[in-house]
C-alpha cells in the first residue's frame, strides 16, 4: 500500500500548521482506535478532520455510515481517490464549527459516535459544543494532546482537574484508553497524544440549569488558588455571610476550593 508521504507528494500536498495537520498512517494503531471505540456495523460515525483518510477507511470498514468533515479543500482529490471504494462514507468539505449543529445531526440521521483525531488548537471548543448542544451523540472517542486527555479524565482535587473536567462530568464520563507517541504522526508534533473516550449520559442531571452551573464553575476556577468563598464574593458580589451560607447549605467545608468539588457538588452549590 502507498505510504502517506508518497500519497501526499503525488497529490502535490504540503501540510498546513494553521489546520493543525498531523496525520496518522499506522494501520494497526488506527484499527485499535476503532476497535476501542466499539464501532459496529449498526453505528453511524462522525469524523472531524479526515486528513488523508487513514482513519476514515478503518471506520468505513466497520460502521454502517461515516460522515466526515474536512476543512482543507485541497484534500478533496486525495480523499476521493482513497475512499473511492467506500460507498458508506460521505466527506463534507466544510468547517464543522461553522455549521449549525442541527444540520450536522440531520445529515447523520440519528444516534452517532464521534471518532476523530482532533487538531489540538480546536479540541476544547469542539468537545464542549458537542457535549453541551448535540442531541444525538452517544460517545466521543478522540485523539488529543496527552495532557488534555488526562485533564478531561482527571479526578477532583488533582492538578489536572478543571472547569472542562466538570463540564464533561455534568454530561457523562471520560477515560483515557490509549497513549499514542508523537513518532506515530506525520509530521511528528512536539508532544505525545492520547485517545480519550467520553460516554454521554443524557439522563445525568436532566433537570439542571446547565447555564447556571457553568457560571458557578467558571466562578470557582476564576482564581484557582483562592478559596471558593472568596471567588463567590468576588464574582457574584455576595456578602461573606451569604457566600458562607451557600457553601454550608451544599454540605461543603468553608475552606474548599473549586478543584475540590465534583459535578454533583457543583449542582448542589448552584441550586443553593
How would you describe this structure in keywords?
12 helices; Rossmann fold; Helicase, Ruva Protein, domain 3; seven-stranded mixed sheet; 272 residues; two-stranded antiparallel sheet
Mean pLDDT over the full residue set? 91
* C-alpha end-to-end distance: 61 Å
CATH architecture grouping of the largest domain:
3-Layer(aba) Sandwich
Order of strands, widest sheet: 4-3-2-5-6-9-7
What portion of residues belong to β-strands?
15-25%
Radius of gyration: 21 Å
- Percent helix, as a range, is 25-40%
What is the makeup of the main sheet?
Answer: 7 strands, mixed
Total domain units: 2
Find the CATH superfamily of the largest domain.
Answer: Vaccinia Virus protein VP39
Low-confidence segments: none
- The dominant shape is elongated
Indicate the structural class: alpha/beta
CATH class category of the largest domain: Alpha Beta
CATH fold-level assignment of the largest domain: Rossmann fold
Order of helices and strands: HEHEHEHEHEHEHHEEEHHHH
How many helical stretches?
12
Strand element count: 9
